[in-house]
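Continuing the batch. This is chain 6 of the set; chains 1 through 5 are on the previous pages. Same settings as before, nothing changed between runs. Recording input and output for traceability.
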Amino acid sequence: MLAGVLAASMIGSGCAGVVQGSTPAGTGTPPPAPPQTQLSATPMSASFPAVAAGSSSSQAITLQNGGTGSVTISGVNVTGAGFSTSGLTLPMSIAAGQKATFNVVFAPSSAGNASGSIALANNASSSPLAISVSGSAIASTTVLSSSTTSLDFRSVLVGSNTSLGVTLTNTGTTNVTISNVLVTGAGFSATGAGANTTLARGQTAALNVTFAPSALGSAVGSITIGSNAPGVSITLAGSGGQLSSHTVALSWDPSTSDVVGYNVYRLLADGTYGKINPAPTAVTDYTDTNLQSGSSYTYVVTAITADNTESAYSDLVIATIP
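Output for chain 6:
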């Protein structure tokens, strides 16, 4: 019995040796897979609407390596009139999982539509990576616009001053550079936008015009704005007035709501209302003394609550000073 058992073990051992000796090649640990390269772009297309001929516009493109091996961009082929790239230094390598950015530029030389592509040669399976581009070019124009063509300061007390604002806007397609702002007329002046002010397309600049009469009577003038665009002119008018001995006594019905006081407003030359009492008055009357002879004044009143909420304007009242 013991010999038989031993024989069986030997036979088993012999068989194991035979099997081990005949193991097929390749049944052990497989070799690592070769690195995979994968390149993508975001976005895959670039559009440039309404670019002025002679100017340029750019758009950023992000490249991403979504593979396990490094991607090398070896070349770029650009088609389409006016298109180019910036920020690509070739050869460019992007490590696995990393990103890189470059710009597509559209700089049309004349009005019209254009289309093309940016093809990036690389060592990924998707080579070349193609990004479609399109653009429309509009004719180049240089235009400076003003928010108004005239300013009327009405009557201003001699020795005091009033200011009105003007907004200048580049409504063309190319930069506008102001070379000078010429003001004529006694008592008129301007500050703000001046020589060497440059406005890009759609950009604005403020011009503050002041009338400070030194004598009684009417005054007229003008503002001429010189630039590389067609000229802009604004006519000016006003009159110097004197303080009147007359006053305007205002009174109103009390508010039916719970209020702590009232504000009194007077119409200004620019069409807005300016508050003439320094703090809300608790009573329902007010006397205005800062008046000019030969002028008319328009007033409104508002009510103020304890939490400083202000009501809408009351009905207006007009007073004419002899």
